[in-house]
Design goal:
- The protein is an all-alpha fold.
- It contains 23 helices and two strands.
- Strands 1-2 form a two-stranded antiparallel sheet.
- The chain starts with a helix and ends with a helix.
């Protein structure tokens, strides 16, 4: 492990972060109080000073970034970025403890959308903007962003890209990583710019439109309102957010292929077809459950009148299904009051998540497809042991290495889910809250069930549990392997 190279590269990233902090600082100057302004000044100085020390006093002898350095840079960058991102909350006094500050910062950067704030609307504008901006930066991946704009990192850029976004399609674009990252970010910026006027014309204030655009294309879910999207009570806004959350939940490589004229590959993509089919199935089933189930099936035994019509049921079922599956985490209704069937279904959608190579969280649709097809193949082998049957995606055989990697990922994911849930129960967290909260954190969704439900937050969670949830967010965002390998001695040996 070339530690000086890791720290030197992190120094460059910290300097860029200090430059990024100038944007919310400018927003604070326009809207803010003195405490808010100084909070960003101190955060900017802390990030910039650390960056200068790491960059100019720790110069490596070798500048080639291997996979080990790539893993270390990505993992430590997210940890330290969350640290510096927490400082505005801490210095401004909007959070009472540093644990809460770090929780909110990590939730933003990992696009989880879980919050500890009881009254979001009382927060200063600069802080609200920073919350949304952290999700926007974390959506596509901050490291990928830096790869796109920093030639100095571009030398070993594919290593960083692979560590940050280890999906099934990364290998195909490594040779032109800088160009690819730039195109992906142009698409990302374009979606954000297009969404802002839609939300503005739909009735949001311009500030709210910008913030919600940031958190929609990143599938983050932070809102400027206590009631999330329900506060606007606008079908138009809900449809617009659903459409753009769905777009963000699709593989961005597909948009790259569209830009480069590879239309046939997009049409032949089996993952997107499975994603759409699964989402439509979820919407239909939840809609029927909301409409036909009687009041005794609802949590609390009271059925809201807005579910008395099939149209009303469809509206809320569609929004929540899309929001949860894409890990956007917005709410237009309190789904924790829905029938148990709907609540369990939404948790399952959390686990599945969006497409590989998207801003969505979860285990990803491609992995679920491989799991199902591998299971079918094994059943086929029971009947015909000598038969050769390939697992295919988009009509092409998938290598056994990818299948093994996928199965291992799912096993480790479920194992960590169980361990994290048990740890939460040790500190007195209620069972449903523990299981659903961990599922939400590892899938980077945000809202969960019971004490962490749609209309509640994580402020009441014990501090040891919050640190577990923070780690679960990081594991979910970096897809397990990147984080686990950092703690293995083998990674640090020469």
């Amino acid at each position: 492990m070339n530690i000086p190279l890791v720290l030197h590269t992190l120094g460059t990233l910290f300097l860029l972060l200090s430059g990024i902090l100038l944007i919310p600082f400018g927003v604070s100057l326009f809207y803010g109080t003195r405490e808010e302004i100084w909070a960003f000044v101190f955060s900017l100085i802390a990030s910039g000073f650390t960056g200068l020390v790491f960059k100019y006093f720790l110069k490596p002898k070798k500048e080639d970034i291997t996979i080990r350095e790539g893993l270390a840079i990505v993992a430590f960058w997210w940890m330290f970025c969350a640290l510096f991102g927490a400082l505005p909350y801490w210095f401004s006094g909007t959070c009472d403890t540093f644990c809460d500050s770090y929780f909110e910062s990590m939730s933003g950067l990992t696009t989880t959308g879980a919050s500890i704030f009881n009254d979001i609307e009382a927060l200063p504008k600069g802080i609200l903007f920073w919350r949304s901006m952290t999700q926007w930066l974390g959506g596509m991946g901050i490291v990928v962003f830096f790869v796109a704009i920093l030639p100095t990192i571009g030398v070993g850029g594919h290593k960083l890209f692979s560590a940050e976004a280890p999906d099934l399609t990364t290998d195909k674009i490594k040779p032109r990583i800088a160009q690819t990252a730039k195109i992906l970010w142009v698409i990302y910026l374009s979606l954000t710019a297009i969404l802002i006027p839609f939300l503005w014309f739909g009735g949001m204030e311009f500030f709210d439109a910008v913030c919600h655009s940031f958190t929609t294309v990143s599938t983050g879910g932070f809102s400027t309102k206590n009631q999330s999207i329900a506060a606007f009570d606008s079908l138009f806004i809900e449809i617009v957010i659903m459409v753009f959350a769905f777009i963000a939940g699709c593989n961005f490589i597909l948009y790259y292929q569209l830009v480069t004229g590879k239309f046939k590959k997009v049409l032949a993509n089996s993952e997107i077809r499975f994603f759409v089919s699964l989402m439509l199935c979820a919407i239909c089933l939840i809609t029927l459950a909301l409409f036909f189930f009687d009041s005794t099936s609802y949590n609390g035994g009271v059925k809201d009148h807005k579910y008395d019509s099939i149209g009303g049921s469809l509206r809320y079922a569609a929004f929540q299904a899309v929001s949860i599956m894409t890990s956007a985490g917005y709410c237009n209704a309190d789904f924790d009051l829905w029938p148990d069937f709907c609540r369990v279904f939404l948790v399952l959608l959390m686990f599945i998540g969006g497409c590989a190579g998207s801003t969505a969280g979860g285990m990803k649709v491609a992995r679920i497809m491989l799991l199902c097809k591998s299971g079918v193949r094994e059943l086929f082998h029971v009947l015909r042991p000598r038969a050769i049957m390939h697992v295919k995606l988009s009509g092409k055989p998938v290598s056994e290495d990818i299948i093994t990697n996928t199965l291992g990922f799912i096993v480790i994911n479920l194992g960590l889910f169980g361990v994290f849930s048990l740890i939460l129960t040790i500190f007195g967290t209620e069972l449903i809250t523990s299981f659903s909260a961990i599922a939400s954190m590892m899938s980077n969704v945000g809202p969960a069930l019971a004490d962490a439900g749609a209309t509640k937050n994580y402020s009441g969670i014990a501090y040891p549990c919050k640190w577990v949830l923070i780690f679960a967010m990081l594991v979910g965002r970096l897809e397990i392997y990147t984080v686990i390998l950092i703690f293995l001695p083998l990674t640090w040996k020469k």
